[in-house]
Amino acid sequence: MTVVREAGAPSASRPRPAGGSARPGRGGGRGAVGSGVWPYLLIAPAFLGMLYLLAYPLVRTVLISLQDFQLRQLIRGDARFVGLRNYEILLTDAQFWQVVRRTFLFMAVNVTLIMFLATLVALVIERLGRVGRMTVLSALVLTWAMPVIATTTVFQWLFHSEFGIVNWALQQLGFTSFDRYPWFAHGTAAFTILVVLIVWQSVPFAAITLYSALVTVPTELYESARIDGASARRIFRAVTFPMIRPIFMLVFSLEVIWTFKAFVQIWVMTNGGPGDATTILPVYAVQTALSSQRYDLGSAASMVTVLMLAGVLVFYFRQMFRQEGEAV
User: Fold this and answer.
1) Strand locations in 33-81, DSSP E?
2) What does the alpha-carbon distance between residue 254 and residue 31 come to, in Å, rounded to a whole number?
């Protein structure tokens, strides 16, 4: 029996051309290599710039902290290595440990107030209507966007002994003892003003970030908790906070770092005074380096500050990884 094949039907045994599409382009390998290298070439300038701006100052600070580096060595460039002697001088100085205790107190007071107020503000924003929410968020953004120097200068004017509006308002309320009261001449008063300033500057960022976390909590969880008869406090503890805890811990860690290394506000407003009532580690490092011209001790104090901040970061990442492990 003869089988007639239709015209144009492909033959199963027809050989495939040697130079056809069966060989998936020799250029495909080059494209893969190029696509793998090209992203690294794009980020190389930013990476090298960051390396120069961050890594070089850090390495230079470490080297100076290990040298006898004062004004003479700065001019002549004949610094010699002294090992850990600067750290030994620093860690055996009683004043340094007073500064460390004051730094941790300053950080604890600020971070506690910031996180408490930011959480309250975020909860209030979540319950506001559209107009109220936009108004409050706009005010927070404008507050957060104010330059640090400008805000610090405004606070200096507010608490001016003669022309400050705070003294005038207190006198109008009957507190006559605040007539020309020198706020920045008293350590506790200056410390309190700095706390108010830093809290006022930091709450907007923390509140907006926590609010963005609150809106991701499913409403079904709230409805189920209310059906079970849970109070508002119970709902926050059992539903809201566990859901926003990763973001809360992130904001908490950032506020610890930013508060721990606060410098501009203190330097502009009080220069660490009166006495050393508002001197924390970053201010102490600058005072030691510039006023005493002990750049080696100032660098050592800066490295101690970096190590303490690194300890905070290690603690945060351990907590984060532990939470991820529990979630898995």
Assistant:
1) none
2) 42
Q: Is the dihedral of CA 284, 289, 290, 291 positive or negative?
A: positive
* CA–CA distance, 102 with 279 (Å, rounded to integer): 8
Q: What is the pLDDT of residues 225-236, one digit of tens each?
A: 888 888 888 888
Quickly count: other Cβ atoms within 10 Å of residue 305's Cβ. Answer: 19
Which residue from 294, 269, 255 is spatially nearest to 86, judged by alpha carbons? 294
For residue 81, give the 3-state DSSP assignment. strand
Three-state secondary-structure class, residue 294: strand
- Written as six digits, the tokens of 163 are 């022309």
Q: Are 289 and 295 in contact (CB under 8 A)?
A: yes
3-state secondary structure of 70: strand
pLDDT tens, residue by residue, 263-284:
999 999 988 888 889 999 999 9
Alpha carbon distances (Å) from 103 to 190, 206, 219, 271, 294: 15, 21, 41, 15, 21
With residues binned 3-state (H G I as helix, E B as strand, rest as coil), the percentages for the chain, rounded to 5, are 75, 0, 25
pLDDT digits (tens, 9 = 90+) for 150-185: 999 999 999 988 888 999 999 989 888 888 889 999
CA gap 21, 293 in Å, rounded: 74
| CA neighbor of 239 nearest in space, from 256, 259, 222, 220 | 222
Question: How far from the centroid of its chain's Cα atoms is residue 95's Cα?
Answer: 27
Residue for token pair 């992130």: 250
Q: Three-state SS for 147?
A: coil
- Ramachandran angles phi, psi of 161, nearest 5°: -65, -35
Q: Is 67 helix (H, G, I), strand (E, B) or coil?
A: strand
